[in-house]
Specification:
The protein is built from 24 helices and 27 strands. With about 775 residues, the chain is of the alpha/beta class. The strands form 7 sheets. Strands 12, 13, 14, 15, 16, 17, 24 and 25 form an 8-stranded mixed beta sheet that branches. Strands 4-5-10-11 form a 4-stranded mixed beta sheet, sandwiched between helices. The chain has a 4-stranded parallel beta sheet with strand order 7-8-6-9, with helices on both faces. Helix 1 links the parallel strand 1 and strand 2. Helix 4 packs across helix 11, helix 14 packs parallel to helix 22 and helix 20 packs across helix 21. The longest helix has 25 residues.
């Protein structure tokens, strides 16, 4: 088998993964430089590559093999020349990374392939044997587009990194508001797709957003100015308006950032500035999410090529929720074109629906959280809901609290904030919280409400008193493993205390990502980015020096998620975790593997170790072992990352995941309150297992699961779930680090058709 790269817009991680997985399955792998132009020109543009060719490219933005628009490839003559160049090298498998234009071109090339070969044979350029031998061309696509404008995939490669750039700018702008009262109009990329604008507006709590798929209604100028004035009257020092570059009004006329600025200045007289982000969004180092996504997709692409037959359609590999899927390329392209058609014809609601469930849910959540209805229009339920944080701080907790407060108020409840977790609850540190109190919380790290690890068991009576005193009818707990244990304890205490017979829901938030019932926890992505950034810097610190290996210790308790995924994102050589026991022989094998590696052109090694992976093989022990065994070949350094993994501003993923999951949890509370309210007694009474739930991300969906049912899935001694999805990615890390290991293909994507997700399904993309 031979693999090739076409046009790349995005990620070197995908290039690296395809090359290494291709070599792992004993294929010859070729780079085609400068996209289709290189394929047409041939010569030095098509080069066989080795393992070392893709070393140290993981953290580099853009693409090492170049990309170019190519007019000749649009002609049959150009494609004929490209086919000749491929056949000469025996290439019959193409892995194309690009947008819908690149992928459509690849599909046309595949359809014409046999005709092109026959024409080449007629012209005497190739013989009949070659026509027979190379009769079929297989194509697999990966979507690289920062706009996330390709239907059928939750997240395209490069989107998360672009969001990181936008949010960095928004956070920087927010600090200027401490000294000046200003309105900022931010223009972000997205000529035909408003994804970046919408998600960044959701992530920073923007006052207004303009996107092509959902133009504002007639008279939007008045509505926007009223909204900005109200916010300023509430002592909000900063207004942020986000405009997608392709934003339009309902008559398909463009809405530009300058037009918005002039409107604000003329109508309100506010000091207003425009910031156009432009190509900043394309630059910088890729985020941890993008590196892992691209690595997973790259490996999946090679597997898809291996399994391809002349009858299987050209496919794209993509992500649905947390699940790798394969979709027919032309079905995706067709649906992407349908969106544009719907927008051109003014069918905007249809355009939003065609973008998929994730986009639609982002839009609905934004509308719910950004515009406060007048008190007279809000329903009045007379229910009181308490919100508290439990466990260690995790970035994104504040975004979750903000969403809970605002959705709760929209549903007509009174929301009470509990300070300092269950301990604060017992001491009566509880107060009503309003819409304006949580303004600007999305970008704040840590926990503004305060959080403690204390469990409720020793305070049950006092907490019951507080619930009775404040007439609390439902509880929302945002936290980690302690929050899960806390809900189990409260639920067990229902027999003794009627006050706990109310709906309770938990939203998982912990850097360790060790909560049963959820693939992801709020805060884990931010911690992963911290680890990845630090590993990049550490690796760079050794450039130009002699050969060096770094041993890095990560957090996570007994859960190896951060160590394993950090290793995958940073391109580490090994990751030691508790879930996969290791002995001295494996340590020895790792040292020997690194010694061999250092004999090549590669000069640096990276080893991650989870803090509790083994009580005897400590970080110091591993450091000393590597130092001794590597003498004369490499030297060692060690780093313990510590609490820097819990700090920092939340990543775009954590802000949005926290916002969306928390909003959904509050809507569940409203539903349960209605179901469990007893008119006769005039109170809420809920004592069934399904009234104490954890809301978690499971593969493709957000699912409410009774905590009582999760007990059987939990290892309480080590505070981890008994089964963890990310362990299936472990062989992937080893393969990309050149270890011989078996890769379980049972979890690889099966070819599916592009269909709208059912109404209740909600994907995990942000």
């Amino acid at each position: 088998m031979n693999c090739q790269f076409g046009k790349i817009k995005g990620m070197n991680a995908a290039v690296r993964a395809v090359v290494r997985m291709g070599i792992y399955v004993n294929a010859k792998v070729y780079f085609i430089y400068e996209g289709y132009q290189g394929m047409v020109d041939g010569g030095d543009n098509i080069v066989e590559v080795s393992w070392e060719s893709v070393s140290s490219i993981l953290q580099v933005g853009g693409t090492v093999i170049g990309s170019a628009r190519c007019k000749p490839f649009r002609t049959r003559e150009g494609r004929l020349q490209a086919a000749f160049n491929l056949v000469q090298r025996g290439i019959t498998n193409l892995c194309v990374i690009g947008g819908d234009g690149s992928l459509t071109g690849a599909n046309l090339f595949r359809e014409e392939w046999s005709g092109l070969l026959e024409e080449l044979a007629q012209k005497g350029k190739i013989d009949a044997e070659a026509v027979k031998k190379y009769a079929y061309l297989n194509i697999v696509g990966m979507v690289g587009s920062i706009d996330n404008d390709f239907c059928g995939t939750d997240m395209t490669i490069g989107t998360d990194s672009a969001l990181h750039r936008i949010i960095e700018v928004v956070d920087a702008i927010m600090t200027t508001a401490q000294s000046h009262q200003r309105t900022f109009v931010l223009e972000v990329m997205g000529r035909h797709c408003g994804y970046l604008a919408l998600v960044s507006a959701l992530a920073c709590g923007a006052d207004w957003v303009f996107i092509p798929e959902y133009p504002p209604e007639e008279g939007w100028e008045d509505s926007m100015c009223v909204k900005l004035s109200e916010n300023r009257a509430r002592k909000k020092r900063l207004n942020i308006i986000i405009v997608a570059e392709g934003a339009i009004d309902c008559h398909n006329k463009p809405i530009t950032s300058e037009k918005v600025k002039d409107l604000v200045v003329q109508r309100l007289g506010f000091d207003t500035r425009v910031t156009i982000l432009g190509h900043v969004q394309r630059g910088g180092t890729p985020s941890a999410f993008d590196r892992i996504l691209a690595s997973r997709m790259g490996v999946e692409a090679v597997l898809a090529l291996l399994e391809a037959t002349p009858d299987t359609p050209a496919c794209v590999v993509s992500l649905s929720g947390n699940q790798a899927v394969r979709l027919p390329l032309m079905e995706c392209v067709q649906m992407t074109q349908e969106v544009q058609k719907a927008m051109d014809e003014g069918r905007f609601l249809e355009a939003v629906r065609l973008r998929g469930r994730s986009f639609e849910n982002n839009l609905n959540t934004y509308k719910l959280l950004s515009h406060k209805k007048p008190d007279a229009e809000l329903p009045k339920t007379n229910f009181n809901v308490a919100v508290l944080n439990v466990g260690a701080p995790a970035a994104g907790m504040n975004a979750a609290v903000r969403a809970a407060v605002r959705v709760g108020m929209t549903e007509g409840h009174k929301i009470f904030a509990v300070i300092d977790g269950f301990e604060g609850f017992a001491r009566g540190k509880i107060k009503e919280i309003s819409w304006g109190d949580v303004g600007g919380w999305t970008g704040q790290g840590g926990s503004i409400l305060g959080t403690k690890r204390t469990l409720p068991a020793k305070y049950l009576e006092k907490i019951a008193d507080q619930m009775r005193t404040n007439n609390i009818n439902a509880l929302m707990v945002i936290g980690g493993f302690e929050a899960y244990l806390g809900l189990l304890e409260l639920s067990a205490a229902r027999e003794k205390y009627d006050e706990f017979c109310v709906p309770m829901v938990m939203v998982p938030a912990t850097v360790s990502n060790n909560v049963p019932g959820s693939d992801f926890s709020i805060g884990a992505d931010t911690a992963l980015n911290t680890i990845t950034d630090t590993c990049d810097r550490i690796k760079q610190s050794a450039s130009g020096t002699k050969r060096r290996v770094f041993i890095i210790e990560t957090m996570g308790g007994y859960c190896g998620y951060l160590a394993n995924m950090g290793a995958l994102a940073a391109g580490a050589d090994a990751a030691y975790i508790f879930e996969e026991q290791f002995d001295i022989r494996e340590l020895q094998a790792n040292v020997e593997h690194l010694t061999e590696k250092m004999k090549t052109s590669i000069q640096r090694g990276l080893v991650l170790r989870n803090e509790n992976c083994n009580e005897n093989y400590t970080t110091d022990f591993i450091y000393q072992l590597y130092s001794e065994e590597g003498k004369g070949v490499f030297d060692c350094r060690k780093n313990v990352l510590g609490h820097m993994q819990q700090g920092g501003a939340p990543s775009p993923f954590d802000r949005n995941f926290g916002t969306k999951i928390s909003a959904k949890a509050m809507q569940w509370i409203s539903k349960k309150l209605k179901e469990t309210y007893r008119k006769g007694a005039g109170k809420v009474f809920a004592n069934t297992d399904d009234s104490v739930c954890l809301l978690g991300m499971r593969r493709r969906n957000l699912v409410f699961q009774p905590v009582a049912e999760l007990k059987s899935e939990t290892d309480f001694v080590h505070r981890i779930p008994k089964e963890q999805w990310w362990l299936k990615l472990r062989p992937l890390m080893k393969i990309l680090a050149k270890y011989k290991t078996s890769y379980d293909v049972s979890d690889s994507g099966q070819l599916e058709h592009v269909a709208m997700l059912p109404k209740e399904a909600e994907t995990g993309a942000i």
